[in-house]
Amino acid sequence: MTSDPAIRLGVAGLGRAFVLTLPSFKADPRVELVACAAPREASREAFLNEFGGSAYASVEELCADPSVEAVYIATPHQMHREHAEAALQAGKHVLVDKPLCVSMIDALAIAETTEKTGRHVIVGPSHSFDLPVLKALELIESGAYGQVRMLHALNYTDFLYRPRRPEELVTDEGGGVVFSQGIHQIDIVRLLGGGMASSLRASAGAWDPQRPTECAYAAHLTFENGAFASLTYSGFAHFDSNEYCGWTGELGHPVDPTGYGGARRALMAVEDHEAEARLKSDRTFGASAALPGGSENEHFGPLIVSCDKADLRLTPQGVWVYGHLEKEFIQVPVGPVPRRGVIDALWAAVRRGCPAIQDARWGAASLEVCHAILTSAREGREVELEHQVPVRRTTQ
Question: Is pTM, for the whole model, over 0.85?
């Protein structure tokens, strides 16, 4: 264990994103929660009661706090540029929840501010930090299995039928499955495919007038090195692809298959948009208990990477390697910190000066693929990509 002091972390936004990452912060001694900013007084009081430190009504006040070294931005997507730039210009490092932001203009502006200030930005948590994904990357980079040729990523969930704020159902404000869920799948596929995607062709569906945003998509992504990937996602709350993952849920917890239809049933009991928004608020910090870490690794649905000499199949427990004549399973232990890959990247950036792979330019590149899915689906054409970056490794 390092003798360096813990990173003094401030949190901007105490909603669901923070609740989901909180078990990692609490379990890892490399992080100390010292301050927060949130509009709801009840959330601020809950933070002070549990962690002490300071609580602010605005992100600008949080960024001005000299005790804060880095800021975790867990505010709504459309606020990310404003809050990231406030933190960077105040000399703070930034961990910003995916996606980096909503518009490409904002994404490139954040990247430019990062470079001007000399601070580090890590875009996550996203499932590209999952330990089985990082193990697969290690196996690919070892060269033992040859070049990556093809990737298949699949996920069917109930995402669109969980409680949502009104803007989460408006595509232009970052709502729908592409920005909130597709970004995970895109991050993983780009990471394992080398990063440099070149073009994309996609279709997307918005099939429920009561949830007027994209509920599903299918995309074919081509890389400069000749590799290609299929990405399929549905948030329509019908088939649950956790069935293909041993009934282990996205966060590593067991899923009870007898609970089928639970999301839609719960939503049917909600009277209007205001009541749904209140239900979403009930899942924020101070209103709901933090989830414990899962017994298995987090995942984002079935994923197969085809290389010259083997197929790699990622699971919540590890990586199956299917070679020419034999197969083997490489177990990836969960460990006490649920999202250790994210904390490892934050620690390396703040304490070692090593940028993460998932930095601001990476986040902008993944966001570009999100927009390409929407553009291709709307215009019925292949979209060329212009802002891609490779997987950049640094010595930590």
Answer: yes
